[in-house]
Design a protein that fits this description.
about 400 residues; 8-stranded parallel beta barrel; 4-stranded antiparallel beta sheet; 11 helices; about 35% helix
Length: about 400
């Protein structure tokens, strides 16, 4: 399959010595260091490692190596019910250490989510609707401020299409959205985040790929609420969407002119969930193993899905929802690594795309008489003899060595 041309860039790099003179007829090593495209995964499993929890350090160090070898963007959990189960006692320090751990390794970090009706803080149930609005506003401002500079991308509010009518569990946000409406609830959340960190990238995120989400987006934009990117969830527990359906969805949401982030992608390496299940959470089984046949299918589907996403010009990020089967959502075999820590074929397939086919490995190149050399590759960060430069468009670049 041909490389998507819109992901590529060309540059003529002029290499200078420490005195500013062109380095003519000299061998240098050109290498890619990072993709511009955000290849993401959740970082939940590595929070303990970042906090130097002794049991976690022994169990997940190898998993961290696998994670970092493929992904350049991490999603960290800010579910209110686990982040602040006791009012006034948020676990800020623990998640901040985790965010810095990823950032120190060149990984972009996103917080998920600032407002959601599920995994809600239990103490919200004791508050009036107006009080819920006030503490939700304060919660968003606190987290966005505390993590600014480390986390500057947020899923601001999650799954608002269903929020006002959600009836699976009592929670404060459903009451707020029912009383005030979807768009005012979204405005509250986005205003709090935007006013606190005006330069942050703020997403509206949903699993509902129907026209209901499109109508909600239209209303949000018409109301003048600034959204930086649209989050589209793709948990495919009931089977791979296929290229035709995926492209149709991408085209429908691309019409808003906003970058698309595939925020939650899952493909199974075992038995598929029955198609009659409407709420994926309703499917509870005692055991859900990964199988050889399922792993072969998952590897094929992961490759096809990522080729489709990278091939669409509106897609800016794709986050896979889980590195490992150990502790995976719903107990499903959706990870790229087995519960015993060994990579599945899907992991190898994705790595072959991200770090091989779509990657420039260290390559020795000789400069011209003018000290120039051409570089062509996927947009991102590159280096010449260790000195970084951005390959972001067709342009000329000057790199000074030893300066």
């Amino acid at each position: 399959m041909p490389t998507p041309q819109h992901r590529l860039a060309d540059a003529v790099v002029t290499v200078l010595d420490r005195d500013g003179h062109p380095l003519a007829h000299t061998d240098v090593v050109v290498a890619q260091r990072r993709h511009e495209f955000l290849f993401g995964n959740i970082g939940f499993d590595l929070v303990g490692l970042a906090n130097e929890d002794e049991p976690a350090r022994a169990e997940v160090s190898a998993l961290a190596d696998l994670w970092l070898d493929v992904f350049n963007a991490a999603t960290l959990p800010f579910y209110w019910g686990t982040f602040e189960p006791v009012r006034g006692a948020p676990t800020t320090d623990r998640l901040l250490r985790a965010a810095r751990w990823f950032a120190d390794r060149g990984v972009a970090v996103k917080g998920h989510p600032l407002a959601w009706h599920t995994v809600g803080a239990p103490w919200l149930l004791d508050l009036t609707t107006d009080e819920i609005a006030d503490v939700q506003d304060a919660r968003i401002r606190r987290e966005v401020a505390d993590f600014a500079g480390v986390i500057d991308t947020w899923d601001v509010i999650n799954e608002v299409v269903i929020m006002p009518v959600f009836d699976k569990e009592p929670n404060g946000l459903t009451r707020l959205a029912w009383d005030r409406g979807r768009i005012p609830t979204i405005r509250l959340a986005f205003d709090a985040a935007r006013q606190t960190n005006p330069s942050a990238t703020l997403l509206l995120n949903d699993f509902d790929m129907s026209t209901a989400y499109e109508c909600l987006i239209e209303g949000v934009l018409e109301a003048g609420i600034r959204v930086d990117a649209l989050g589209l969830q793709s948990h495919m527990h009931q089977g791979y969407w296929g290229e035709e359906k995926t492209l149709a969805i991408l085209d429908r949401f691309a019409r808003f002119g906003l970058p698309l982030h595939l925020t939650e992608t899952t493909l199974l390496s075992g038995e598929l969930m029955p198609p009659h299940i409407e709420d994926l959470n309703d499917h509870q089984v005692a055991s859900w193993p990964s199988t050889p046949e399922g792993e072969a299918r998952q590897a094929d589907e992961v490759e096809r899905h990522y080729r489709t996403l990278v091939g669409h010009p509106a897609v800016q990020a794709a986050t896979y929802w889980g590195i490992t089967d150990d502790g995976a959502w719903l107990g499903a075999p959706g990870g790229l690594v087995r519960a015993d820590g060994t990579p599945k074929p899907a992991y190898d397939a994705l790595r072959a795309l991200v770090k091989d086919e779509w990657w420039l490995a260290p390559t020795t190149v000789r400069t011209s008489a003018a000290g120039c050399l051409p570089v062509r590759g996927f947009r991102g960060t590159y280096s010449v003899d260790g000195v970084p430069f951005e390959l972001a468009g067709d342009r000329e670049v000057v790199v000074r060595l030893g300066g």
